[in-house]
Specification:
With about 210 residues, the chain is mostly helical. Helix content is about 65%, strand content about 0%. α8 (about 150-165) runs antiparallel to α9 (about 170-185).
Length: about 210
Amino acid sequence: MRPLFDGVTPSTAALCLVVAYVIGSVPIGLLIARAFGIGDIRRRGSGTIGATNVLRTAGWLPAVLTLVGDVVKGMAAVCVSAWIVAKTPEEVSFVAIAAVAGNCWSVFLKFRGGKGVATGLGALLVLVPWAILPSALVFLVVVATTRYVSLGSLLGALGVPIVALVLGYPLPSAAVAFVIALIIGKRHNENIKRLLSGTENRLGQRASAS
């Protein structure tokens, strides 16, 4: 494959990154929680805008809508950027990082936001779809056995770049998956501390403020 953004002007490449970041920044969980009469989800439960906190504070339907919306954000960010420059998603895979960054540090939320898992999932479903299935199974098994969504998310995210390399996906796409896993790990820093101390919230347990 050609290098990322090969033949694309710097201004167009920058436009793609900005578009991906803005798409990723849309606070789906916050908007859905408000639509269901919950108010500012950041003032409830764990204080995050992701599907897990929406589930704990608003129920299954808002949580599913949040999850789907965040996944679609990631897919849209990559596909729209590819459309702008008339290239394949793999050739603009770097914009996936911008989308996840938007979710984590949203311009609409004073550069605060979610943890990047669902948005990263959406972007990587476009870039390395067959690498997602084994990682999704890891996530499901970990959550089902431990009820730690954070642990499942961390292990699942880490598995994507490894599986992508094993399956022979382009190195840039696997590298992007690795960077996304690092971002997700960074955003779960407090969760990791609570996992190590045995105080992490389990799925179905009321979240403590964090």
